[in-house]
Records
---
Amino acid sequence: ETGVTQSPTHLIKTRGQQVTLRCSSQSGHNTVSWYQQALGQGPQFIFQYYREEENGRGNFPPRFSGLQFPNYSSELNVNALELDDSALYLCASSLAGREGAGELFFGEGSRLTVL
Amino acid sequence: AQRVTQPEKLLSVFKGAPVELKCNYSYSGSPELFWYVQYSRQRLQLLLRHISRESIKGFTADLNKGETSFHLKKPFAQEEDSAMYYCAPLGGSARQLTFGSGTQLTVLP
């Protein structure tokens, strides 16, 4: 069984640039959630994808967007980067439905630094 | 607004002592509640969920709807319990987890 993998692990961008982060789900999982974790804070929900569609979104602006592919892997895109976007971005996969809800399997994260 | 509060950022106890990590929530309806844990150099993982009523690694958590609390307890802490602990209610349009700010538990020898 393959766990959740994320790439890249670290990256540095400058203000105004765009970034794409990638995530491969755990085998058999059809739902992907993305979280932003700033230093010293808990993970904050960005959005969730199920069947290639966004089915829930946290309090993040539209410049945060995502995709889910038929193999359930996912991308997080952030446009017009701001300094406050510097954070650890976590991807988590799960099974849809009552039993799977809340049981998230996390990746190790992508550490984004915006200069 | 949905909110979860973990009032202690840092908590230290001695090995063998009881430990309680506090969590209070403000949520509409009756959310399901979870505790997640992150050990040093490991990824965030599920510790327990209140509906299963299981004891995981000696930890239990009781949901108190009157006090809207879901405190995590262990009668005898071990050094390997040192980690960051997050309380997380489940709710919202996507039935997503909302994480608290976390409590760093250190168990001293």
Note: The mean pLDDT of chain B is 92.
---
Amino acid sequence: GAGVSQSPSNKVTEKGKDVELRCDPISGHTALYWYRQRLGQGLEFLIYFQGNSAPDKSGLPSDRFSAERTGESVSTLTIQRTQQEDSAVYLCASSLIAGYLGELFFGEGSRLTVL
Amino acid sequence: KQEVTQIPAALSVPEGENLVLNCSFTDSAIYNLQWFRQDPGKGLTSLLLIQSSQREQTSGRLNASLDKSSGRSTLYIAASQPGDSATYLCAVSDSGGYQKVTFGTGTKLQVIP
């Protein structure tokens, strides 16, 4: 597609349930980032994928959080046993590392509400 | 560890004014710096990207400058309009093989008609 696509755009879940968020990056972009943005807060880095290299998971807040990406395609962020503190907008970005840019392009985000 | 600071946190100006937003970073070993805008409830929209070897970039009424040695960037907005109201964020990518991106906390701009 033309831009970064994220789904679902909104998700309301009950505490303790698992959720899966999806990010479809711009075709050909080798790098993919996940960020979390709580209400009124800045962007919090979660995880970074670069091609087939081992991902940087240093930003994942707990072992309830995990993410996968196969090659340079879709990524999924999974949150297990959700807590109310997980309520936030989860933003995905992709970039073309090679050549001129490294410019980040963001999706519209997935808004997660944990009741 | 890279730290990015944006001052002011909020800014309110009358329509038509020229304004400057500031971004500072602690580690000058960067690959590039990017300015974004974020509208309420939306994702981030890229405005300008400056490579570490560049001093400035321009797009329409926007001009971004970079002084890597002093760890500073400014975003200049000319002839501000109410549609410019948004939160503006800067982000720096670390140099080297792995481009970790660090974001500032943003400047919330309100342009009053």
Note: Strands of chain A lie at 5-7, 10-13, 19-24, 31-37, 44-50, 65-69, 75-79, 88-95, 105-106, 110-114.
